[in-house]
Amino acid sequence: MRWKNAALLALAVLAVGCSSNSKKELPPAELPKFTEEVKLQKEWSRSIGSGQGDIYNMLEPVVDGEQIFAADVEGLVVAMDRMTGKVAWKQELDVPVSGAVAAGYGMIVVGTLKGEVIALDSSSGEEKWRARVPSEVLSAPAISSDTVLVQTQDDTLVALDAYSGQQRWIFENTPAVLTLRGTGSPLLTNQLAIAGLSSGKVVALDVQRGIPVWEQRVAIPQGRSELDRIVDIDGGLLLSGGQLYVVTYQGRVAALDLQSGRVIWQREASSSMGVAQGFGNVYVTLASGTVESIDERSASALWTNDALARRQLSSPAVFSSYVAFGDFEGYLHLISQVDGRFVGRTRIDSDGLRARPLVVGDWLYAFGNGGKLVALTIK
Fold first, then answer.
1. In what residue span(s) does the Pyrrolo-quinoline quinone repeat domain sit (predicted)?
2. What are 127's strand-pairing partners?
3. Dihedral through CA 138, CA 144, CA 145, CA 146, nearest 10?
4. Which entry of 59, 137, 258, 316 is 20 to 30 Å from 352 by CA?
């Protein structure tokens, strides 16, 4: 399954990067010049092993309480004080990590390329349990008081007991014939386990039994070739105020009602990244490199910023009055939530910045592809 998915990724990337005719591919846009309005201050920086690696991992760090946890592709897991960067503990796992770190309820959980889920004690790094799942885990699990929910590369959802790692239920889906490499992270509420699939659907299951509660198709595959029909939901779901926000590749961005799955609004979009929400707007970084602000009430675009075309933008995050995101050269960009103008920029890691920036209060954490983890505040 791993090799099959790697081949599918190569085909998908080729399709995105090349046209069907012999026209020359356009290069990434040059960095636009602007008058800096916001200065970002580096509070601390740490190197987290080998970072993301070369297989397009999205190893996003996570904050729980006063600690921040990060992992690298080779299995190094590090716990640090989120305000100072002081290392509390390190743990070397014996398997390559591919799924981002999840934290909560006294433990952290990671997924691996070998189809394992590993839980560690958040205070000491001591291993609590390991569980086997059907295939590789490419996103962060979700954690509740008694459940760890995992989504695997083949669109299977597995609920594990949070204390023992024993399987509670499994829900299998048929993945699309051709998919991008990756999955979004699932969500857990008190009643529901929710995930976006490679078929362009969002499913909600009863969290105790794994029985479907509702299913909603966000994007309909279109086109003659399987490449044209890719509609993956890879950027994860955003839950805010009883609404789910989701975006698909070659499909739509939409808001769904949490309890029923009913579509509240939708508009055409293409992104393999997630969305951010703030000021009554939804922000999305499109596959083209355009950043778009969408009014939640009218579903109309309030502004677009296309100055970073083809720069492989990360998922966006709302930071103070701004939208923050990274690019393939490792620059972190800040643009205004009001009108999309550039207000700040700093370089994090020359190997690139594809993981979503992590925002906690007045702090932003950026984790570069090469392993550099940087804590920033607004000066």
1. 74-305
2. 120
3. -60
4. 137
Give the integer Cα–Cα distance in Å for 81 and 90: 13
Q: Please state, in angstroms and rounded to a whole number, the distance separating the CA atoms of residues 202 and 108.
A: 26
Q: Locate tokens 């999840």: which residue? A: 102
Q: Which residues contact 88 (CB under 8 A, 6 or more apart)?
A: 67, 79, 80, 81
> Taking the model in full, what pTM does it have?
0.91
CA distances from 210 to 92, 158, 299 (A): 33, 9, 33
What element of type H or E holds 278? strand 275-278
pLDDT tens across 148-199, in order?
999 998 889 999 999 999 999 999 988 766 666 667 899 999 999 999 998 8
Distance, first Cα to last Cα, the chain: 47
Two structure tokens written together for 97: 């990590």
Polymer length of the chain:
379
Q: Which residues of 149-164 are buried (b: 16+ CB within 10 A; e: fewer)?
A: bbbbbbbbbbbbebee
Residue 356, strand partner residues: none
CATH number where 311 lies: 2.130.10.10
Q: Nearest to residue 241, comparing CAs of 219, 265, 214, 259?
A: 259
What three-state secondary structure class fits 14?
helix
Which amino acid, residue 235? G
* Number of structural domains the chain divides into: 1
Q: What is the pLDDT of residues 306-343, one digit of tens each?
A: 999 999 999 999 999 999 999 999 999 999 999 999 99
Tokens representing 361?
A: 């209060």
Domain encompassing residue 216: 2-378
How far apart, in whole angstroms, are the C-alpha atoms of residue 113 and residue 139? Answer: 11
- The answer to whether the beta carbons of residues 357 and 332 sit under 8 Å apart is yes
